């Protein structure tokens, strides 16, 4: 049975329930198995030796998620090869690829949590009522220790882009 966290997040002011633990700075990041395509999976160990910025969005086809992914795509181009910038959502890999092609997004790695929502539950961002992942940001160092985390309290708000980017830069 998963940990349920209520009263910590809303969607347009309406309470939602998050499943999973609340990760904190200093925690070892849980491993994950996310899909880059229907047949290709990516895990934390595939990104070994890199600083990781994980941008979690509910769905790429919404305005804030679109803007968040475009912003981190721009930033990723400036951060260098020692940083992996990931965008995680429950959108199907084909929808993610279609969106990236249409948007010209090439610097972030789009990963899907659609199969079993295991990332969402491990990182404490799975929305029980919607089966979507709550908007959040995680920065992991090269040893996969959480160095920055932002769980948004309102799903429709933007994350603090500047703080997340500064957290990444401080690890380089």
Structural description of this entry:
The protein is α+β, with helices and mostly antiparallel strands and 172 residues long. The chain is 24% helix and 30% strand. The protein has 4 helices and 11 strands. It has helices spanning 63-79, 93-103, 118-122, 161-169, and strands spanning 4-11, 14-19, 33-35, 41-43, 51-56, 83-89, 109-112, 126-127, 132-133, 136-140, 146-151. It has a 5-stranded mixed sheet with strand order 7-6-5-10-11. The longest helix has 17 residues, at 63-79.
Overall mean pLDDT: 96
CA radius of gyration: 15 Å
How far is the first residue's CA from the last residue's CA?
38 Å
Helix run count: 4
| Uncertain segments | none
Question: Approximately how much helix is present in the residues?
Answer: 10-25%
Class by SSE composition: alpha+beta
Number of beta strands: 11
Order of helices and strands: EEEEEHEHEHEEEEH
Mind describing the biggest β-sheet? 5 strands, mixed
Oligomer: single chain
| Percent range for β-strand residues | 25-35%
**Strands across the major sheet, in which order?**
7-6-5-10-11
Silhouette: globular
Topology at a glance:
Elements: E1 4-11, E2 14-19, E3 33-35, E4 41-43, E5 51-56, H1 63-79, E6 83-89, H2 93-103, E7 109-112, H3 118-122, E8 126-127, E9 132-133, E10 136-140, E11 146-151, H4 161-169
Parallel strand pairs: 5-6, 6-7
Antiparallel strand pairs: 1-2, 2-8, 3-4, 5-10, 8-9, 10-11
Helix pairs in contact: 1-4
